[in-house]
C-alpha cells in the first residue's frame, strides 16, 4: 500500500489515477481492488468504492472508442459534464441533499480535510483542488477539450436518461463547481471580448478612411487617440498603484472632449514629461571630488576643457570611469545624496512658527536704526581669482556686488546672500535644510544636501527689535518659554526669530559644524549660518556655538550636545564652585610646604613614613589669604586677557582697513613710481613697506622716535646710504602753502593697541579667535603734517618717502645707524665722504665756496642737510 500523501493535490491526483485504475480493473476483475487507489479510511468506505465503481466508469467512458490513457486534465474536466447534465429545473437536487444521499463516499475524507478543516474553507478547496481553476474551463473552447470528456448535455436529456448519475458524488461536485463558475463574474470576460471586437472594427474603419483620405485624416486620428479620455482613463486604471497616497493633485480628465484645442492641450500634457532636474546630487558637481577643498575643486573644474554633456548625465559617476578603463585608479569619493539617505522625508510640522523670510523692523527699531553705511569695502580681484579666499570683501565679511567688485556675478564667488536667494527659488533639496525632531533638545535643523567649507547655508532673519522691546517681550511674552530665539545684532538691536527663518531651530553645540556670521550686504548687516571648515555632509545636524549669555542664573540651561568637550551649559563655562577652588589652593599650598620642609630637612621622617603635621591656625590664615590673592590675580589676568583679545580684534580691523587703503594707493603709485619727484613737490606719497621689518622691530623704532621728539623729523637721516635733502623754503612760500590733507584719523579704539600691530589676516584667522602677530605685509599710511610756523619741521614729499624707505632697513643697516647717531649734527659732508669718497674733494671745494656760504644762511637748525636734491642727483649720475 502506498504511503498516504496528506496534500490535497496529491490526493486529487491519486483519485484520478484511482479511477483510471478502476476502469481497467473493472474490465479484468471486479473484485480486485486497484493497487494505486486511495486507501479507504474505513471498511464501509472500501465497500462503497467497490460498489459505486461501475456507475462512475460508465459515466466516464467515452461514447465510442477505447478508453484513452488518463490525463491530469481529467480531474478538471470531470465537473463540466455534470453541470451540464444537471437539468435546470426538475431532477436537480440541492448539493446538500445529494451529498446526504452519498453515505459512503466522503469527499472530505478523501481530501484529507475531514477532521480539522472548517467547512467554510472546503468550497474554495473543491474549486482549486478537485476541479481545477474555473477560469481556464471557461476560456477553453469546446473543441479543445480532451477526448476523454463525457458527451455534452442534450436538451432532450431527461432526468430519467441520466438516472445513473443521480447518486453519483461526482455529479454533486460538478454541480457545486458549476455554481461557483457562475458566481465568478463572467460578464467581464464578455465585456472584454466585445471591446476587442469594437476596436477591431474601428481599426478597420481607420484603415479604410486612411486609404481614402490620406495624411490629414491620419493626423486627426492620432491627435484624437492621444486625447481619448477613455484610453487615458483605462491607462491610468491599468497603471500599478504604489503604496503611497493617491495623486489627487491631477485635474480630472473630462469624459468627452471633442474640440480641437482641448485635444491639443491634452496632447501637450501627455508629451511633456517632467524631468527631475535636481535632487539626487544637488550641491555636487560632476567633477566634484570630496577629498579636495572647494577652491581646489573649482580649479579642477576650470581646468577641464571638455564641454560637459548636461543632457545625458547617466550614469553620473560611472561613465567616465568606464571610459578611462582603470577602475581602481579612478574611483573617487562621493557624498551620499539626501534622498538615498532618507528617501521619504517626513516633514516635521512645527506649531507656532510664523515664517519670515527677511528682517523686519518692529516698533521704534526702524527709527533708531542708523542707516548710513558704516564702512565701505571694495575688492581688487581679477576674474581668475574669482573673489576667493584673498578677496578683500570676503575677508571683511562684505558681499560683493556691482558697486564694490569688478567681476560679473558669474565670475565672483563672494555673493553668498545672492546664492541664498537663488536657492530659495529652487526645490527643497536646493534649499538644503529641514527641521528635525531631536531626542532631547527639541527641534533641530539638518542638511538635505552637502555644503562646502564656509558655504552659506541659511540666513538668520526675524524681527529686529530694540533692547527695551526685547526686555518687554522677555518679561511679558516669553517669560514661560524654554526656548528663546533672540540674537544680538547690529546697532545694539536684537533679532527675534520667534517669527523668522528656519535658522532659529539650529541648536547649540560645544563642537559645532557651522558658524553664525554677520555680513554686510549692500550696506546692510545680515546674519547667516555658514558651514564650518569641515563642510557639511548630507543628513548632518547643523549646530553652532551660541556663546550664550544667560543674563541671569535662572536662565542657565544644561547643554546636551553630547560632544567630548561639552561645557555642560549653554554659554560660557561657569566658574568652579568656591569649595573646589579652596581645596585646590589648599592642596597646592600644602604640597609646596611639604616640599620645602623636605628639602631643608625640617620635616621629621619616621620609618620612611611621613607624619602629617597639624596645621596651625596661623598657617590656615595664610592659606586663606594666599587663596584670596590667587583669586584676585586670576581675575586680573582674565580681565587683561579679555582686554587683549578685544584689542587684537580692533587691531585686526584697523589693519584690514589699512590694507585696503594701501592697495588703492599702490595702484596709483605703480603708475607714478618711475617718476622722480620734483624738488619742492609737497604731495604726500605713501609708500608700500617691504615685508622684511617685523612688527616688533617697527614698534621699537617708533618708541624710540616718540621718546625723542627731535628724532621725529630726522628719522633715519644719519643712514649714510640714504642721504636726505631738505631745502628750506622761504618763509613767504611756507605761509602761502596750504596745509596738507590730514591722514585719516585712526580709530581711537585701534590706537589702544597700536596701528602697526597687525595680525596676519586670513579668512581662517578672522574666524578663529586666536590671532597671530606676524610680519606686516604693508606699511600703514603715515602722513606728517608740517607746521607752517616752523619751517624746520617741514618735510618734503620726497624726503617722507625716503624716510619711510629708510625704516625698512634691516639690522645690518641699523647697526650703521647707531654708529652714526652721534654725527647727527655734524657736517653732512662726512656722510657723503663715507659713501662716495670720489666726491669728497669736490664737495670740500664746494663747501668753501661763496655759494655754499650763501646757502648756509638759510640753514634752519640742527640736523638739516645743506645739500640739495639736484646736487645729490648729479653726484649719483657721476
Ligand atoms: C534657538 S532654540 C533652538 C531650537 C529649539 N531646539 C527648538 O526646539 O525650538 C534654542 C533652544 O534650544 C535648546 N537647545 C539648543 N541647543 C541645545 C543643547 N545643546 N542642549 C540643550 N538644549 C539645547 C535650548 O532650550 C535653547 O533655549
From TrEMBL:
Q: In what ranges is there compositional bias, type Polar residues? A: 654-671, 704-713, 757-776
| Top-level taxon of origin | Eukaryota
Q: Which residues form the AWS domain?
A: 374-421
Q: What is its main location?
A: nucleus
Composition-biased stretches (Low complexity): 1-42, 235-246
Subcellular location per UniProt equals: Chromosome; Nucleus
Q: Which Pfam families match?
A: AWS, SET
Q: Where is the composition biased (Basic residues)?
A: 672-681, 718-740, 866-878
One of the GO biological process terms = methylation
Which key words are in the record?
A: Chromosome, Methyltransferase, Nucleus, S-adenosyl-L-methionine, Transferase
Q: Which GO terms describe its molecular function?
A: histone methyltransferase activity
Q: Where is this region: Disordered?
A: 1-102, 138-168, 227-263, 599-832, 854-878
One Gene Ontology term, aspect cellular component: nucleus
Give the Basic and acidic residues compositional bias ranges: 632-642
Residue span, Post-SET domain: 555-571
* Residue ranges of every copy of the SET domain listed in the record: 431-547
Report biased composition (Pro residues) as residue ranges: 63-72
> Transferase: is it a keyword of this entry?
yes
Specify whether Methyltransferase is a keyword of the entry.
yes
The protein here is known as: SET domain-containing protein
Amino acid at each position: 500500500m502506498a504511503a498516504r500523501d496528506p496534500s490535497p493535490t496529491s490526493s486529487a491526483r491519486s483519485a484520478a489515477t484511482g479511477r483510471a485504475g478502476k476502469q481497467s480493473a473493472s474490465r479484468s476483475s471486479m473484485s480486485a481492488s486497484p493497487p494505486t487507489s486511495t486507501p479507504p479510511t474505513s471498511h464501509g468506505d472500501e465497500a462503497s468504492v467497490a460498489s459505486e465503481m461501475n456507475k462512475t466508469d460508465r459515466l466516464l467512458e467515452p461514447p465510442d472508442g477505447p478508453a484513452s490513457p488518463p490525463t491530469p486534465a481529467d480531474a478538471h474536466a470531470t465537473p463540466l459534464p455534470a453541470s451540464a447534465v444537471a437539468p435546470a429545473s426538475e431532477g436537480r437536487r440541492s448539493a446538500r441533499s445529494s451529498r446526504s444521499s452519498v453515505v459512503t463516499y466522503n469527499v472530505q475524507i478523501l481530501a484529507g480535510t475531514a477532521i480539522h478543516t472548517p467547512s467554510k474553507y472546503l468550497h474554495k478547496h473543491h474549486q482549486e483542488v478537485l476541479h481545477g481553476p474555473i477560469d481556464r474551463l471557461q476560456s477553453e473552447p469546446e473543441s479543445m477539450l480532451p477526448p476523454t470528456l463525457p458527451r455534452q448535455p442534450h436538451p432532450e436529456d431527461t432526468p430519467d436518461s441520466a438516472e445513473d448519475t443521480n447518486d453519483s458524488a461526482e455529479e454533486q461536485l460538478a454541480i457545486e463547481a458549476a455554481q461557483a463558475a457562475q458566481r465568478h463574474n463572467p460578464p467581464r470576460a464578455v465585456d472584454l471580448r466585445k471591446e476587442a471586437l469594437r476596436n477591431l472594427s474601428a481599426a478597420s474603419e481607420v484603415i479604410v478612411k486612411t486609404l481614402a483620405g490620406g495624411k490629414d485624416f491620419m493626423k486627426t486620428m492620432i491627435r484624437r487617440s492621444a486625447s481619448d479620455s477613455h484610453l487615458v482613463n483605462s491607462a491610468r486604471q491599468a497603471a500599478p498603484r504604489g503604496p503611497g497616497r493617491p495623486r489627487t493633485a491631477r485635474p480630472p480628465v473630462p469624459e468627452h472632449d471633442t474640440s480641437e484645442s482641448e485635444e491639443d492641450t491634452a496632447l501637450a500634457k501627455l508629451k511633456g514629461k517632467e524631468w527631475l532636474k535636481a535632487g539626487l546630487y544637488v550641491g555636487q558637481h560632476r567633477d566634484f571630488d570630496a577629498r579636495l577643498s572647494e577652491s581646489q575643486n573649482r580649479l579642477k573644474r576650470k581646468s577641464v576643457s571638455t564641454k560637459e554633456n548636461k543632457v545625458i548625465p547617466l550614469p553620473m559617476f560611472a561613465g567616465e570611469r568606464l571610459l578611462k578603463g582603470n577602475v581602481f585608479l579612478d574611483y573617487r569619493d562621493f557624498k551620499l545624496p539626501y534622498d538615498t539617505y532618507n528617501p521619504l522625508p517626513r516633514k516635521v510640522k512645527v506649531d507656532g512658527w510664523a515664517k519670515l523670510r527677511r528682517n523686519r523692523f518692529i516698533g521704534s527699531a526702524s527709527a533708531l536704526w542708523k542707516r548710513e553705511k558704516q564702512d565701505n569695502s571694495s575688492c581688487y580681484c581679477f576674474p581668475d581669482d574669482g573673489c576667493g579666499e584673498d578677496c578683500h570683501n570676503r575677508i571683511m565679511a562684505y558681499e560683493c556686488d556691482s558697486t564694490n567688485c569688478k567681476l560679473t556675478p558669474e565670475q565672483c564667488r563672494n555673493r553668498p546672500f545672492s546664492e541664498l536667494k537663488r536657492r530659495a527659488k529652487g526645490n527643497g533639496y536646493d534649499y538644503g535644510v529641514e527641521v528635525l525632531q531631536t531626542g532631547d533638545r527639541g527641534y533641530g535643523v539638518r542638511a538635505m544636501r552637502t555644503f562646502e567649507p564656509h558655504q552659506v547655508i541659511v540666513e538668520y532673519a526675524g524681527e529686529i527689535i530694540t533692547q527695551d522691546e526685547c526686555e518687554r517681550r522677555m518679561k511679558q511674552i516669553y517669560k514661560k518659554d524654554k526656548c528663546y530665539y533672540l540674537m544680538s545684532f547690529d546697532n545694539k538691536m536684537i533679532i527675534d526669530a520667534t517669527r523668522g527663518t528656519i535658522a532659529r531651530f539650529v541648536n547649540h553645540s560645544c563642537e559645532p559644524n557651522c558658524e553664525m556670521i554677520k555680513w554686510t550686504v549692500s550696506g546692510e548687516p545680515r546674519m547667516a549660518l555658514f558651514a564650518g571648515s569641515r563642510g557639511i555632509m548630507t543628513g548632518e545636524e547643523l549646530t553652532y556655538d551660541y556663546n550664550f549669555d544667560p543674563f541671569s542664573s535662572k536662565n542657565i540651561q544644561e547643554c546636551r550636545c553630547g560632544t567630548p568637550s561639552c561645557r555642560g551649559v549653554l554659554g560660557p563655562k561657569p566658574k568652579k564652585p568656591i569649595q573646589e577652588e579652596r581645596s585646590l589652593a589648599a592642596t597646592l599650598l600644602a604640597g609646596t610646604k611639604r616640599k620645602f620642609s623636605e628639602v631643608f630637612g625640617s620635616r621629621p621622617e619616621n620609618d620612611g613614613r611621613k607624619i602629617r603635621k597639624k596645621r596651625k591656625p596661623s598657617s590656615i590664615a595664610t592659606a586663606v589669604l594666599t587663596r584670596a590673592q590667587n583669586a584676585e590675580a586670576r581675575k586680573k589676568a582674565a580681565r587683561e586677557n579679555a582686554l587683549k583679545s578685544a584689542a587684537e580684534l580692533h587691531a585686526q580691523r584697523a589693519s584690514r582697513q589699512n590694507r585696503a587703503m594701501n592697495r588703492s594707493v599702490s595702484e596709483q603709485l605703480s603708475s607714478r613710481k618711475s617718476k622722480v619727484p620734483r624738488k619742492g613737490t609737497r604731495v604726500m606719497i605713501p609708500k608700500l613697506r617691504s615685508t622684511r621689518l617685523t612688527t616688533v622691530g617697527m614698534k621699537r623704532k617708533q618708541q624710540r622716535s616718540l621718546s625723542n621728539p627731535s628724532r621725529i623729523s630726522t628719522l633715519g637721516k644719519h643712514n649714510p646710504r640714504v642721504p636726505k635733502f631738505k631745502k628750506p623754503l622761504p618763509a613767504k612760500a611756507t605761509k602761502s602753502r596750504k596745509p596738507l590733507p590730514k591722514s585719516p584719523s585712526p580709530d581711537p579704539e585701534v590706537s589702544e593697541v597700536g596701528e602697526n600691530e597687525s595680525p596676519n589676516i586670513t579668512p581662517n584667522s578672522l574666524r578663529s579667535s586666536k590671532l597671530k602677530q606676524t610680519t606686516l605685509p604693508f606699511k600703514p599710511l603715515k602722513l606728517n603734517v608740517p607746521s607752517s610756523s616752523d619751517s624746520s619741521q617741514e618735510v618734503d614729499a620726497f624726503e617722507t618717502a625716503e624716510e619711510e624707505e629708510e625704516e625698512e632697513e634691516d639690522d645690518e643697516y641699523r647697526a650703521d645707524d647707531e654708529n652714526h647717531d652721534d654725527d647727527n649734527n655734524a657736517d653732512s659732508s662726512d656722510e657723503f665722504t663715507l659713501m662716495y669718497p670720489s666726491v669728497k674733494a669736490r664737495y670740500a671745494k664746494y663747501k668753501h665756496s661763496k655759494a655754499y656760504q650763501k646757502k648756509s644762511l638759510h640753514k634752519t637748525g640742527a640736523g638739516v642737510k645743506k645739500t640739495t636734491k639736484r646736487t645729490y642727483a648729479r653726484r649719483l649720475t657721476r
